[in-house]
Amino acid sequence: MLVTRMHRWKTVALTTAAVLVGLAAPTLTATPAAATTTAYDSTYYKNAVGKTGTTLKSSLHTIISTNVTKISYSAVWNALMATDQDPNNSSNVILLYSGVSRAKSLNGGDVGDWNREHTWAKSHGDFGEVVGPGTDLHHLRPADVQVNSIRGNLDFDNGGSAVTNGGGSTVDSDSFSPRAADRGDVARMILYMAVRYEGDDGFADLEPNEKVGNGSNPYMGKLSVLKAWNEADPPSAFEENRNNVIYNTYQHNRNPFIDHPEWVEAIW
User: Fold this and answer.
1) Which residues, 6+ apart, have CB-to-CB distance to 127 below 8 Å?
2) Do the Cβ atoms of 180 and 168 come closer than 8 Å?
3) What range does the record give for the signal peptide (predicted)?
4) Given 42, 57, 114, 264, which residue has the most CB atoms within 10 angstroms?
């Protein structure tokens, strides 16, 4: 099933145009995120629509945690070849952070390969590669081996120096910032994990916070930055297709913040 979306997200208004020579050029002003409508609102999300705050978070947790199919960590390789397939080249995947299109066959651990990036660093909550949070496709993405290593388990924040072959990503001593085109994707993946894993299934209760350097604690920061990224970089067709493939073919659950990015602000 394809999502039918009525985009009113990130509306931009122009100030009154200057009509006299020498007047300042019009400026752009972003309006707050407006509600989106999807084909899943009357079915999959019917118990969440209209709610806010902790009530919305609790409802979404129940929805995305029910009747979920889990896969092994080894099965993630083939799954990512489907979820992240290059729409212009079926032999390739698109890599997170760098945006590079790379051959599916180059999966591994050597320089020039791509591997499985946990956007919610697996050390933050110490879940490793275990079936569940360690294999959840909604936060696993293909990434260049070296770029993935540079990101490591750093929290997310703005700033830093350019990452070599990182497509515009930056890094400093305690944080990593993806290239602009991936910032919203990362925010929505991190916040999905915070709703999906609430400590009621034997795993840690994952939550966003306002810190970097969270180490092995089950937190990822910075929430304020992730919220800003969610607004600045709305869901793309690639991201929406990925959500559908995971839902229809693999886990049979959805990332609600791809379908309803305005729910980020409604909860946090």
Assistant:
1) 133, 134, 203, 204
2) yes
3) 1-35
4) 114
Cα(102)–Cα(95) distance, integer angstroms = 7
For 156, list phi and psi in degrees, rounded to 5. Answer: -105, 135
- Tell me which residue of 127, 187, 121, 186 sits closest to 154, measured CA to CA: 121
* Nearest-angstrom CA–CA distance, 58 and 63: 9
Task: Output the six-digit token pair for 231.
Answer: 């607004």
Alpha helix (H) ranges present in 14-157? 53-65, 76-83, 145-151
Tell me, rounded to whole angstroms, the distance of Cα 249 from its chain centroid: 19
Task: Quote the DSSP letter at residue 14.
Answer: E
CA 5 to chain centre: 18
pTM comes to 0.87
What is the three-class DSSP state of 187? helix
CA-based nearest residue to 146, from 115, 171, 122, 175: 115
